[in-house]
Amino acid sequence: MSIDREQEKEWLTQNLGALIIIRGIPGSGKSTLASRLAQNLGEKVLKIDPDEYRYKTLLQFSPYPVNRDELFNKLTGQALEALRLGKIVIWDQALTSLDEDLVKRIESIIQPIPLLLVEIEISESVAWSRVQQRDAEGLQTGPDIETFNTLCKRYSSFRETNSGTNIIRIQGDNPLEDNIKQIIDTLKEVYSLNKRL
């Protein structure tokens, strides 16, 4: 399924920004989806992926803190600045645990800009095989099996909550273009609900 880039660019220039948070277990395809979604949406996007800071050498990223809390604060500042400029922020891995209070706090900070939570659903066996493949290809150092299992047990979906947050669930083994189209269509609906179109 192809996406009409000119139509998307025209739609994007008519709207304020949005915060898209992509969640899922390791190997679910969060970073791949975030990168491809950012490519499809064009220059009005800021993509934030903490792994880009965690897995690089300190020399390359010396201006950025490496402490987890400091890094989160730094990336949050970048996200808020981009949202003020009307950009769409795609944040990979911002909410690894189920924290409705944090989601509500984020929504109150960015209002009236919409928040869209994208949850990637995938079997743990498929996700683990992807982690192993990434490691073998030298693309990224993933968690070992013990850490992977711990992260999977700790991960919770927002589907069990009654929050009014815009949540979209996609299948991690679906074709990427189908998932991107689903996200863009949902974002259009969210803008429409917020009387932005």
Poorly predicted segments:
57-65
CATH top level class name: Alpha Beta
Number of domains: 1
Radius of gyration: 17 Å
Distance between the termini: 24 Å
The secondary-structure class comes to alpha/beta
The share of residues in extended strands comes to 5-15%
Compute the average pLDDT: 77
What would CATH call the architecture?
A: 3-Layer(aba) Sandwich
Strand order of the biggest β-sheet: 2-3-1-4-5
Write structural notes for this entry.
This protein is α/β, with parallel strands linked by helices. It has one domain (5-189): Rossmann fold. The chain has 8 helices and 5 strands; from the N terminus they run αβαβααβαβααβα. The protein has helices at 5-13, 30-41, 51-54, 68-84, 100-110, 124-136, 145-154, 176-193; strands spanning 18-23, 45-48, 88-92, 115-121, 166-171. It has a 5-stranded parallel beta sheet, with helices on both faces.
